[in-house]
């Protein structure tokens, strides 16, 4: 699918065109890095996006700079979904809609880059905003009594990351889409409040989640 800009009326001309191109490259990067891992060559991303390497490097000075920008774009899409979720009159509808939108966007697909690239101030600030809004969405659902009380915002984040993975095929098989829709429905049903049945283990650690991106980056080819 082709991903929409966050606010198509906020930019014009060359800036709007550059953003559209960025989203095409982001779409391709999600395909490539979920299929081939963080070590995938940027040439594979360019080929999937239908752009030349020269085009990418005229806009970005390096592979790392490109990947940093793509991470910010992915988080911005999740932020837009979070804003919409917080406007929902029903907290459960807001939460489930947020999860479905992020899964459709594959907002967690670039998680494989954790520890592979240096994080920027913009990345860290955007991630902090995203985590804060996700916590607000979950808190609303808890207050409404629809979400099981032992589910945390990081549980939701990890869930989205797991569902962000896709087949390496250029066109996703219909059966895979069908299975994902079924499994996501099962996962959402499992988030419903169940006071008589606690989740196993302990809640995910914020420090552990954040520290994945703090590892020493590996050299980029």
Helix content class: 55-70%
Examine the coordinates and then state which fold CATH places here, giving the name of the CATH topology of the domain at 70-214.
Tetracycline Repressor, domain 2
Q: Oligomeric form of this entry?
A: single chain
Secondary structural class: mainly alpha
| CATH level 1 name of the domain at 70-214 | Mainly Alpha
Structural account:
The protein is an all-alpha fold and about 220 residues long. The protein is built from nine helices and no strands. It has helices at about 15-35, 40-50, 55-60, 65-85, 90-105, 120-145, 155-165, 175-190, 205-210. The longest helix has 25 residues, at about 65-85. Mean pLDDT is about 85; it is low at about 1-5.
Write the SSE topology.
Layout: H1 13-36, H2 42-49, H3 53-59, H4 63-87, H5 91-105, H6 121-143, H7 153-163, H8 174-190, H9 206-211
Structure described in brief:
The chain contains 9 helices and no strands.
List keywords for this structure.
221 residues; 9 helices; disordered N terminus; Tetracycline Repressor, domain 2; mainly alpha
